[in-house]
């Protein structure tokens, strides 16, 4: 199985690294516009093969899409961060141009590929990719909920003082610090609702910490995070390539589910070899429904910037 990752920056290269050492795919191609950059990252990762013990073939390319031919999954992490003085609309305009041309190029060489969109603003970029390519919705998946959910479980594990791997929890809604919805009501520790162990005040703090989880890391690192984002993309790619049918919150086109139309937003999805195989309609209470509608309004406003 072959995976192409466009954008060999922090998130893209980390994703390639995790895919390789976990043996998720037989071949990974990194592609970037910066001359020699993807080749360098691929060489560095390849030189871990004997010490971490993997056989994945990793290569890099500067903008030569022919090297990506026949990819089963293409991950798009290319984009630029917001620069001082740049408006949100300008950023969206630039990243939309990048994501659109990348999607065009990869599809010329991998017409059957499933596309995983990571570039921010992710929900809007996923919607744009869907509209620009005209591909069926099962083949365009936005990654955000997997990362936000892993941060949610991290903060729950801190509050509970229990291992994160014993905790179940999910974040739905938009992939933004005011639009995501950590579902504290449904979170559990080995099947027992976390509300049995934590006060409402403690749960509210976990939710608030989760929502600013990305910003907290940017404050500490001076740039946005990459280990957990890269690993989250690899987790999603694993479920596609190896047909694991995991339930992962992903940004996908809604056509009536959760009361929304014509928008890509994070909802629980079954992810397998066809990409999005099913949207799981979980029962939300009135408060969660209201938060979801508010999140959709915010993402819809952002999508409107695509047209202006
Ligand atoms: P980065 O700046 O380290 O890497 C981006 C790479 O894209 C650079 O190497 C750049 O040369 C390349 N690039 C730009 N235009 C290109 C083009 N037209 N073709 C090919 N390559 C191109 O950024 P980082 O930290 O890796 O983040 C990548 C994107 O992912 C950003 O938009 C970031 O906001 C987003 N992100 C999304 C997350 C999510 O959960 N959805 C989590 C973390 C980051």
Written description of the protein model:
The chain is of the alpha/beta class and 308 residues long. It has two domains: 2-143, Rossmann fold (3-Layer(aba) Sandwich); 145-306, Lactate dehydrogenase/glycoside hydrolase, family 4, C-terminal (L-2-Hydroxyisocaproate Dehydrogenase, Chain A, domain 2), CATH 3.90.110.10. The protein is built from ten helices and 14 strands. It has helices at residues 10-21, 37-46, 49-53, 88-109, 122-133, 145-160, 200-211, 213-221, 227-241, 286-307; strands spanning 2-6, 27-32, 57-62, 73-76, 114-117, 140-142, 167-168, 171-173, 180-182, 188-189, 192-193, 246-255, 261-272, 275-279. The strands form four sheets. The chain has a six-stranded parallel beta sheet, sandwiched between helices. A three-stranded antiparallel beta sheet has the order 7-10-11, with helices on one face. A three-stranded antiparallel beta sheet has the order 12-13-14. Helix 1 runs parallel beside helix 2 and helix 5 packs across helix 10. The chain is globular, with a radius of gyration of 19 Å. 46% of the residues are buried. The chain binds 1,4-dihydronicotinamide adenine dinucleotide. 1,4-dihydronicotinamide adenine dinucleotide is lined by residues 6-12, 31-34, 37, 77-79, 98, 102, 118-120, 122, 143-144, 147, 175, 224, 226, 229. The site of 1,4-dihydronicotinamide adenine dinucleotide has 28 residues, from helix 1, strand 2 and helix 4. Catalyzes the reversible oxidation of malate to oxaloacetate. Belongs to the LDH/MDH superfamily. MDH type 3 family. NAD(+) binds at residues 7-12, 32, 95, 118-120.
